[in-house]
Write a structure and sequence with these properties.
Elements: E1 12-19, E2 22-27, E3 31-36, E4 50-56, E5 59-65, H1 66-69, E6 82-88, E7 91-97, E8 99-106, E9 126-132, E10 135-140, H2 142-146
Parallel strand pairs: 2-10, 5-7
Antiparallel strand pairs: 1-2, 1-8, 3-6, 4-5, 6-7, 9-10
């Protein structure tokens, strides 16, 4: 408890998934749905990790293959390939992963700071590392990654101080 008498060790839930041999997790509150991979409409001149777009109940959804983006494992598309549909900054985006594992609750005390080396992508996209059932999980700041200029999927919300 903090000085005001409120609990400070509130757990946050994460959806865990695999890319290659590694375990990753994202904030469960960003997840809209989990679905199988389906063919996409290719976009001309898009980077290789942008597979294209799909029409999801009237929404045009860009599909990002994190396996290509993070350069992990062999990239195959079959009946076991998973797309996690996310709702980020009032937009819908799909990410391709090897498989979805579980939902885990983690407290701030369970998180360790990310290393500055040894990961397949910039550590600014990491929330930290955690160990669950003796397995290391890399916590991805999916909001930061998906809205990054590096991916170029959409503009970040304006931060001019004016409220919308």
């Amino acid at each position: 408890m903090d000085a005001t008498g409120t609990a400070t060790n509130i757990a946050q839930e994460f959806l865990t998934f695999t890319l290659g041999d590694e375990n990753y997790a994202i904030d469960i509150l960003t997840v809209k749905e989990i679905r199988g991979y389906e063919s996409v409409t290719k976009i001309a001149n898009a980077p290789p990790f942008i597979k294209g777009v799909i029409n999801l109940r009237g929404d045009i959804v860009p599909i990002v293959d994190l396996r290509i983006k993070f350069d992990v494992g062999n990239v195959t598309y079959d009946e076991f390939t998973i797309v996690i549909v996310l709702h980020i900054h009032n937009r819908i985006v799909g990410i391709v992963v090897d498989g979805v594992s579980d939902v885990v609750s983690l407290s701030k005390e369970q998180l360790r700071p990310p290393p500055d080396f040894g990961v397949a992508f910039n550590s600014r996209y990491l929330l930290g590392l955690a160990t669950v059932n003796e397995q290391m999980i890399i916590l991805v700041d999916i909001n930061e990654l998906i809205s990054s200029e590096e991916l170029g999927l959409f503009d970040k919300p304006e931060t001019t101080g004016a409220s919308a």
